[in-house]
Amino acid sequence: MSILVIAEHNNIEIKSSTLNTINAASKLGSEIEVLVLGSNIDNISKEISSYQHVSKVIFIDSEKFENAIAENIEPVILSLAEKYSHILAPATTFGKNVMPRVAVKLDVAQISDIVNIESEDTFIRPIYAGNALATVKTKDTKKVITVRPTSFDVVAKEGGSGIVEQINLDIAESGVEFIDREESKSDRPELSTARIVVSGGRGLQSAENFKLISDIADKLNAAIGASRAAVDAGYVSNDYQVGQTGKVVVPDLYIAVGISGAIQHLAGMKESKIIVAINKDEEAPIFNIADYGLTADLFEALPALSTELDKLNSIEK
């Protein structure tokens, strides 16, 4: 049984979601090959070959793959698919864009967003906004799977000795042209992989007040998140959204401020190791899953927390 993992990267570094996916693939078998498509990716390909469990890295270095366009990536995967029983990618924007095209062309049912692997044909995935888990058994001879990165540990970046092979394929033009990309940049940790996340909700009342969240996040070296209500109200961009239609996070510490705890938001953060909730409504659903809850006005609680963090930081220095 041979397994193919589609690597997610930005032509400079490997995304951590790829490391999670390789680890998930190791639960299926030991013959794991990784496909890397990009531009100037020699170093990335060599790096992946040293990862634990990786037996081979296949890469195509071309400007055509500088940007992750699904219409360009899908034909490459299809051309290689015959020799693999399982094809995996992270259930990120990248994987969700590419893998459905692969599944439909192979005429198989994609198994999406898996959180556990029971056997080579049986997988567990969340349904109903994460309120239930479905055990899915597939009869397809070829399995196309996306993996929820936060449900699997990252694979070790050493201990492997995979072969690196560069290939060239004559792929027809897709008719799709890359125009532009707009990305928000931040010195803070990336939201989906951060150890600490501080999220704000509609209770903050305005974009200006969201600076209270930023202040706490800076002092904790944390990522910033938000509920959909806060995003829809224009307090922050949708890059910060945590939840069913946003990002799924599993940090060591999740601080929810002014978030009531709608089921859609809980689906994106309820697996966090420690959850702290600050809300003036003692009946807010967020308190049902919080490890620590504070019923208080956030406009009083956050400045007080900021002061205490300043004291702790001064002691440490």
Descriptive account of the structure:
By secondary structure, this protein is of the alpha/beta class. It folds into 2 domains: 2-166, Rossmann fold (3-Layer(aba) Sandwich); 191-316, TPP-binding domain (Rossmann fold, 3-Layer(aba) Sandwich), CATH 3.40.50. Helix content is 26%, strand content 25%. It has 8 helices and 15 strands. It has helices at residues 16-25, 42-49, 70-80, 93-106, 211-220, 228-232, 263-266, 298-316, and strands at residues 2-6, 31-38, 54-61, 86-90, 111-114, 116-119, 122-127, 132-137, 143-147, 163-166, 196-200, 223-226, 253-257, 274-279, 292-295. The protein has a 7-stranded parallel β-sheet with strand order 5-9-4-1-2-3-10, sandwiched between helices. Strand 13 (253-257), helix 7 (263-266) and strand 14 (274-279) form a beta-alpha-beta unit. The longest helix has 19 residues, at 298-316. The N and C termini lie far apart (54 Å). The mean pLDDT is 92.
Class by alpha and beta content: alpha/beta
Query: Care to count the β-strands?
Result: 15
**Under the CATH scheme, which class of the largest domain?**
Alpha Beta
What's the overall average pLDDT, rounded?
Answer: 92
What strand order characterises the main sheet?
5-9-4-1-2-3-10
Proportion of residues in helical segments: 25-40%
Query: Which parts are unreliable, with pLDDT below 50 for 5 consecutive residues or more?
Result: none
Domain count: 2
Order of helices and strands: EHEHEHEHEEEEEEEHEHEHEEH
What is the number of helical segments per DSSP (H or I, 4+ residues)?
8
Main sheet overview = 7 strands, parallel
